[in-house]
């Protein structure tokens, strides 16, 4: 077990204790981009949901790239729910105590964490509402109630997309829209022509139509099956972990290739050898407010994109002619075939003009300004909603 960091007399950096439902090492996404930047001038500890195994209860703390430390609470299998909450409460007490007189900020990704952290005396409470968790499969019954309590307690709230911001803007006086941004340099390496085709897709014929991301109830498996059947000449490369749905329900066909999860570092090599990026999101309650990070990531890789009619993709990307919107299997096949033949020079120029207006560094700088204003009680110096052109975020 790695002991919690103890502050020294020269360690004056604020402690930011992040309470997350997402595993740090699972998929590199919004929290990782933001919190590795926060770690430049904060002591950042991410407290994950418990891991249940056969061993004794213990708290492991390990440092990850970028200086973020991840705290994982291991608990015995079969532990009663009340005891689980008590163990989580003890763990966050230990972690918060390491502030040792420094400012303590609580950063919430899940309102469920209030069940074991509502007693903590924090100098600042941040709620980054990156998803509408109540609409997800297996959402806890108390989530809506606890989210209302978190809105009451938070000093500043961030939302992960424009549609979510519109739905939640009336719930807090200091709420700001920050759609996920883009690491253009990372995904831009897919355009250079120097990345070798990964071994597990090198034998797949072209044209390749690719998706990467978590494959769960938000992914329209029926649409994939229909499109693959209608276009046997296309090859569909699906990258990502399968969660909350039965893998046996995934469509199987000669032109569908399930390659499993890949690391963030590996993604550009896969995208470099795709012909079209595809976002086959289901249109349901779980996708009503999503703002997919992969939209600008596909574009930064230089890939034309087809997407279902997700609100935060239609506007601005569909409206600006940067992404093709297709609702049905027939529309999707037609859009893919059209993009395979379309010239790309003019489209890429428009893409690059859009992407040049934002970055994760810029997003974090704006968030940090609002956090400091909330910490000191100063008036907010930024508008309550950054434009999509400023954040380049979907």
Which sequence of SSEs, written as H and E, runs from N to C? EHEEEEHEHEHEHEHEHEEHEHEHEHHHH
- What is the count of DSSP helices, taking H or I runs of 4+ residues? 14
Question: How many β-strands, per DSSP?
Answer: 15
* Model regions low in confidence, pLDDT < 50 over at least 5 residues: 1-10, 381-394
Structural class of the helices, strands and pairings?
alpha/beta
Q: Give the CA-based shape.
A: globular
Radius of gyration of CA atoms, rounded to a whole number: 22 Å
Average pLDDT reading: 90
Percentage of residues in helical conformation:
25-40%
β-sheet strand percentage: 15-25%
Question: Summarize this, please?
Answer:
With 394 residues, the protein is an alpha/beta fold.
List the helices and strands and how they pair.
Blueprint: E1 15-19, H1 30-38, E2 43-47, E3 51-53, E4 58-63, E5 69-76, H2 81-97, E6 104-108, H3 114-117, E7 124-129, H4 143-153, E8 156-159, H5 162-168, E9 175-177, H6 184-188, E10 208-212, H7 221-230, E11 235-239, E12 256-260, H8 267-271, E13 276-279, H9 294-300, E14 305-307, H10 311-318, E15 324-325, H11 329-341, H12 345-355, H13 360-376, H14 388-391
Parallel strand pairs: 1-2, 1-6, 2-5, 3-5, 6-7, 7-8, 8-9, 10-11, 10-13, 11-12, 13-14, 14-15
Antiparallel strand pairs: 4-5
Helix pairs in contact: 1-13, 7-11
């Amino acid at each position: 077990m790695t002991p919690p960091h103890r502050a020294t007399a020269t360690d004056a950096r604020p402690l930011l204790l992040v309470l997350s439902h997402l595993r740090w090492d699972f998929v590199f996404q919004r929290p990782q981009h933001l919190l590795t930047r926060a770690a430049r001038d904060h002591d950042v500890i991410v407290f994950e949901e418990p891991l249940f195994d056969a061993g004794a209860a213990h708290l492991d703390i390990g440092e990850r790239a970028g200086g973020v430390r991840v705290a994982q609470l291991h608990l015995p299998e079969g532990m009663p729910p009340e005891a689980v909450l008590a163990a989580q409460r003890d763990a966050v007490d230990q972690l918060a105590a390491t502030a040792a007189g420094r400012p303590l900020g609580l950063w919430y990704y899940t309102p469920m964490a209030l069940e074991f952290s509502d007693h903590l005396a924090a100098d600042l409470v941040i709620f980054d509402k990156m998803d509408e968790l109540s609409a997800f499969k297996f959402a806890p019954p108390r989530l809506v109630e606890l989210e209302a309590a978190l809105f009451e307690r938070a000093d500043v709230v961030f939302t992960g997309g424009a549609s979510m911001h519109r739905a939640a803007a009336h719930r807090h006086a200091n709420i700001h829209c920050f759609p996920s941004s883009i690491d253009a340099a990372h995904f831009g390496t897919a355009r250079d022509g120097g990345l070798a085709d990964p071994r597990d897709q090198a034998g797949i014929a072209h044209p390749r139509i690719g998706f990467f991301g978590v494959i769960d109830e938000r992914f329209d498996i029926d649409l994939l099956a229909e499109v693959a059947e209608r276009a046997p000449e296309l090859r569909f490369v699906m990258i990502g972990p399968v969660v909350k749905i039965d893998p046996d329900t995934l469509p199987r066909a000669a032109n569908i290739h399930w390659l499993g999860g890949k690391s963030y570092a590996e993604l550009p090599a896969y995208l470099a050898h795709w012909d079209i990026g595809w976002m086959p999101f289901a249109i349901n309650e779980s996708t009503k407010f999503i703002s997919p990070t992969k939209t600008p990531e596909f574009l930064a890789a230089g890939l034309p994109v087809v997407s279902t009619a997700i609100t935060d993709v239609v506007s601005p990307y569909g409206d600006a002619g940067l992404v093709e919107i297709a609702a049905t299997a027939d529309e999707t096949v037609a859009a893919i075939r059209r993009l395979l033949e379309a010239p790309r020079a003019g489209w890429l120029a428009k893409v690059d003009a859009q992407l040049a207006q934002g970055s994760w560094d810029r997003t974090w700088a704006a968030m940090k300004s609002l956090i400091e204003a909330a910490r000191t009680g100063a008036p907010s110096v930024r508008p309550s909603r950054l434009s999509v052109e400023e954040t380049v975020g979907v």
